[in-house]
């Protein structure tokens, strides 16, 4: 059987092509989780803290890169206690232990939360 590629997305029809047959633009699949990217300098369970008080997890969101995570704009916790990510809030902030150790996270990145699911 010959593989036929879609003219819009270039994926093989029936094997990855999500384009509607009517020619309209494919709809985003919100139920699909983004793929988590591996980072070199930070372990996967680290909590990264941006100066705006938002917590991130290495590789779990695509709106920042590993090269951007540097003090003074960032702090981090390399080996957080179990469950720390889930407890981050105004009442239970995550306090950086490395980088800019004066930073505190009181909320979590929504993209990271979506990628991690129940971490």
E-strand count = 7
- Helices and strands, in order, run as EEEHEEEEH
- Which structural class best describes the helix and strand composition? mainly beta
Number of helices: 2
Structure description:
- The protein is mainly β and 119 residues long.
- The protein is 9% helix and 16% strand.
- It has two helices and seven strands.
- Strands 5-3-1-2-7 form a five-stranded mixed sheet.
- A hairpin with a 3-residue loop joins strand 1 (47-50) and strand 2.
What are the salient characteristics of this protein?
mainly beta; 2 domains; 119 residues; 5-stranded mixed beta sheet; 2 helices
Set out the fold topology.
Elements: E1 47-50, E2 54-56, E3 74-77, H1 84-87, E4 94-95, E5 98-99, E6 104-105, E7 107-108, H2 110-116
Parallel strand pairs: 2-7
Antiparallel strand pairs: 1-2, 1-3, 3-5, 4-6
Brief digest:
Helix content is 9%, strand content 16%. The protein has 119 residues and is mostly beta strands.
């Amino acid at each position: 059987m010959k593989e036929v590629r879609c003219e819009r997305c270039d994926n093989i029809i029936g094997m990855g092509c999500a384009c509607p047959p009517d020619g309209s633009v494919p709809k985003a699949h919100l139920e699909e989780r983004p793929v988590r990217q591996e980072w070199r300098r930070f372990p996967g369970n680290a909590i990264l803290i941006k100066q705006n008080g938002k917590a991130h997890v290495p590789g779990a969101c695509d709106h920042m890169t590993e090269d951007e995570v540097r003090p003074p704009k960032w702090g981090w916790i390399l080996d957080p206690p179990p469950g720390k990510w889930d407890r981050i809030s105004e009442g239970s902030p995550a306090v950086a232990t490395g980088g800019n150790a004066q930073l505190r996270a009181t909320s979590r990145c929504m993209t990271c939360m979506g990628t991690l699911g129940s971490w």
